[in-house]
């Protein structure tokens, strides 16, 4: 079994999220940098092994065929923009995702800086967010985030591609969004109304019973089930971010890993379009999605070994008639 990139860790105190586009002509440099990332992460992490450093890289749909020949992950596709009756989720450019997390921001900074230096002018950075742990795993809105994440083998199963796509078994899919929160409006809500928007108590972090939980609460709309009624999980690794001054943006960097993109897409459809349509996520009245991208996270073996690069497209000569040495076109004998 190929070795997956290390996605599942304990909750860390810091994270850096970088999204890049690959510039024309930068493909070879990107391939080299991808192969070097696992070793770079290991080397930096060895300086503080207690800090749980890991660096995860994902590759977007539009970049995949520019970087690799051969098959591609069967469910890899661009992020789908959503336009509900009130709120929208935009799709924004993204060819590469670097997600670095550790207990210390200096370790995240070191990996991110060294890897972006290695990439050089092969890429353009389109998003950079530094996340931090906020008290007891709370979002800046005051609620605990990621409570419903699966654990143990359930978490592994939730994020790991299996035999349904054997060429990419052990990989994962990941979706990212950056949300900007309107704290003036949110903080103006009484706590009971905030709890109704989330579907969970604020202080104790206890989920409301189904018979009292509002149908448009964040938790109610994020539950996706299969045909047999079993809940389908993703693993969220969200982080708060923000500028300290009142003029800067603050909010949540949303990131969710899964074994297929379908479940994340369905969650977002329910949030923005509504379930039923029009019954959208109440939390969106206070936070706005400003980015959205989707990636495939290949295994560590894939990064280090890699399939061949795509070759140049051969120039096809115009089709010629079957000229013969006697000057005829092979239409028939003149004899």
Automatic annotation (TrEMBL):
<keyword id="KW-0560">Oxidoreductase</keyword>
<dbReference type="GO" id="GO:0020037">
    <property type="term" value="F:heme binding"/>
</dbReference>
<feature type="region of interest" description="Disordered">
    <location>
        <begin position="303"/>
        <end position="335"/>
    </location>
</feature>
<dbReference type="GO" id="GO:0046872">
    <property type="term" value="F:metal ion binding"/>
</dbReference>
<dbReference type="InterPro" id="IPR006314">
    <property type="entry name" value="Dyp_peroxidase"/>
</dbReference>
<keyword id="KW-0575">Peroxidase</keyword>
<dbReference type="GO" id="GO:0005829">
    <property type="term" value="C:cytosol"/>
</dbReference>
<dbReference type="Pfam" id="PF20628">
    <property type="entry name" value="Dyp_perox_C"/>
</dbReference>
<dbReference type="InterPro" id="IPR048328">
    <property type="entry name" value="Dyp_perox_C"/>
</dbReference>
<dbReference type="InterPro" id="IPR011008">
    <property type="entry name" value="Dimeric_a/b-barrel"/>
</dbReference>
<dbReference type="InterPro" id="IPR048327">
    <property type="entry name" value="Dyp_perox_N"/>
</dbReference>
<comment type="similarity">
    <text>Belongs to the DyP-type peroxidase family.</text>
</comment>
<feature type="domain" description="Dyp-type peroxidase C-terminal">
    <location>
        <begin position="137"/>
        <end position="301"/>
    </location>
</feature>
<keyword id="KW-0479">Metal-binding</keyword>
<protein>
    <recommendedName>
        <fullName>Peroxidase</fullName>
    </recommendedName>
</protein>
<dbReference type="Pfam" id="PF04261">
    <property type="entry name" value="Dyp_perox_N"/>
</dbReference>
<dbReference type="GO" id="GO:0004601">
    <property type="term" value="F:peroxidase activity"/>
</dbReference>
<feature type="domain" description="Dyp-type peroxidase N-terminal">
    <location>
        <begin position="5"/>
        <end position="133"/>
    </location>
</feature>
<keyword id="KW-0408">Iron</keyword>
């Amino acid at each position: 079994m190929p070795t997956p990139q290390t996605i599942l860790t304990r909750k860390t105190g810091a994270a850096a999220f970088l999204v890049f586009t690959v510039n024309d002509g930068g493909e070879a440099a990107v391939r080299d940098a991808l192969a070097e990332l696992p070793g770079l992460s290991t080397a930096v992490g060895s300086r503080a092994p207690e800090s749980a450093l890991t660096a995860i890289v994902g590759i977007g749909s539009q970049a995949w065929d520019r970087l690799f020949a051969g098959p591609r992950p069967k469910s890899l596709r661009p992020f789908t923009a959503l336009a509900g009756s009130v709120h929208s989720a935009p799709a924004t450019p993204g060819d590469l995702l670097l997600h670095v997390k550790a207990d210390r921001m200096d370790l995240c900074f070191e990996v991110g800086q060294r890897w972006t230096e290695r990439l050089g002018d092969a890429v353009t950075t389109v998003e950079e967010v530094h996340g931090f742990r906020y008290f007891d795993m709370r979002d800046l809105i005051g609620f605990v985030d990621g409570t419903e994440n699966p654990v143990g083998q359930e978490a592994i199963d939730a994020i790991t591609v299996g035999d349904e796509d054997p060429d990419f078994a052990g990989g994962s899919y990941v979706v990212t969004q950056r949300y900007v929160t309107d704290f003036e409006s949110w903080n103006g809500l009484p706590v009971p109304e905030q709890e109704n928007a989330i579907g969970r108590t604020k202080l104790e972090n206890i989920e409301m019973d189904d018979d009292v939980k509002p149908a448009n609460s964040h938790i109610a709309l994020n539950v996706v089930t299969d045909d047999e009624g079993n809940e389908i999980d993703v693993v969220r690794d969200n982080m708060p971010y923000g500028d300290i001054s009142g003029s800067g943006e603050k909010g949540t960097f949303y990131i969710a890993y899964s074994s297929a993109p379908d479940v994340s897409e369905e969650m977002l459809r329910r949030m923005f379009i509504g379930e039923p349509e029009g019954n959208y996520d109440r939390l969106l009245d206070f936070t706005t999605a400003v980015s959205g991208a989707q990636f495939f996270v290949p295994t560590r073996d894939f990064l280090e070994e890699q399939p061949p690069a795509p070759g140049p497209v051969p120039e096809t000569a115009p089709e010629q008639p079957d000229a013969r040495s006697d000057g005829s076109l092979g239409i028939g004998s003149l004899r």
